[in-house]
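User: Please run a holo structure prediction.
Assistant: Happy to. Please share the sequence and the ligand.
User: Here you go; the ligand is zinc ion.
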Amino acid sequence: MAPQLDGYFKQVDGMSGHFIERLRKAVAIPSVSADDERRPDVVRMGQFLADELRALGAEVEQRPLGKQPHKEHLDLPPVVIARYGNDKKKRTILVYGHYDVQPALMEDGWATKPFDLTVDEKGRMFGRGSTDDKGPVLGWLNSIEAHQKAGIDFPVNLLMCFEGMEEYGSEGLDDFINAEAKNYFADADAVCISDNYWLGTEKPCLTYGLRGCSYYSIEISGPGQDLHSGVFGGTAQEPMTDLVRVMSSLVDTDGKILIPGLSDLVAPLTDEEKSLYGDISFTMDNLYESLGSKTGIYDDKERTLMARWRYPSLSLHGVEGAFSAPGAKTVIPAKVIGKFSIRTVPNMEPTDVDELVYKYVEGVFASLKSKNTCKVSLQHAGKWWVASPRHWNFTAAGKAVEKVWGVKPDLTREGGSIPVTLTFEQATGKNVLLLPMGSSTDAAHSINEKLDKRNYIEGIKLLGAYLHYVAEEPMKEG
Ligand SMILES: [Zn+2]
């Protein structure tokens, strides 16, 4: 194994300029999925990928997903699916990425033009989509090309699924994956997604869990229209007063969720799981730096990471219909809608969570003995995901990280959601690995998004090395 990889790595280094040019071309296509006007650019980006893949000898299909829900004048951009290699003796690995990007405007505060890849003296490559997710997507293509140029046999059959609506809720993708799981993706042995980040900037990680999210609204109404407090204050029961009292009963200052029964749904912490936290490269200063303050709840690393990854949290997001502008308007809002969400973890079933939330909110409201009306409802729910980090897909990736970076990867989870992860797991029944390329400072979704040249080039090596190890790793389910 090692001899082939040395040749591959040398080839990647030799082609680094070419790979950066490929990224420059991709970043130059402003494939912003949230912006209707940019839809032709999103389609053009999918076409760019398809052309590059065909030039590398892959079989490519651009599958239409129909009209965009609620925007029937717009076609969804096609999913680009591709196959490289069809050797029955080799394993088949399915990889996913997305070719659309978040919006980006100079006015937002970018220091460089967001769609011109700009490399600074520290090797930071600034540009929208550089790290999320064009760099990683091109990583797979670059890996194929470097194998070809070095004359090294590609170790697996590679199935690729690249979508163009990820930053807009992956419209249409779930149905597509479910339909293709037994067709185009049928022979996949394992799945790999490169669309998340290292926990810090120096140590690579493999990610084996994500929290889910259940998002609720509490609507409280009473008066037929907004009222003036000088006229009606003291004479009418006020929806805003009720809402504040209900919302304040959901969570306390230390993040403790006050809904009875919710913590009973959480999987107990085992010693084995606990042992994964000690070595993780993370300090409280990392937290304070990203918070921009020292207002953390816990003083230690383990508890902080567990609170982010493996325990639920409840956040209050806002109140629709409330007076929120500067100044001192004396309005009594007639109807207010409070928004909050719960980040869910194993083994919380979303429907069980809903039931506890409804019962509790209705109970608290009833205890106020208000004449107003309260309606609590779910806006959307996405389930958590957790995989075994001892599965052969993960152990293979761990060896690839050690080979490329010279360290054992941290095994991490994330506090947020990547819903497609669970979709792939459920649809294919195969293990899904999250193998990030970029680091925590990449500012995906933010201004001045970047990917470090080092992470890109070593990342191309990593993706290729992973394919070599996963081709040979004994198939233990872990
Ligand atoms: Zn992404």
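The pocket of zinc ion is lined by residues 98, 132-133, 166, 195 (CB under 6 Å).
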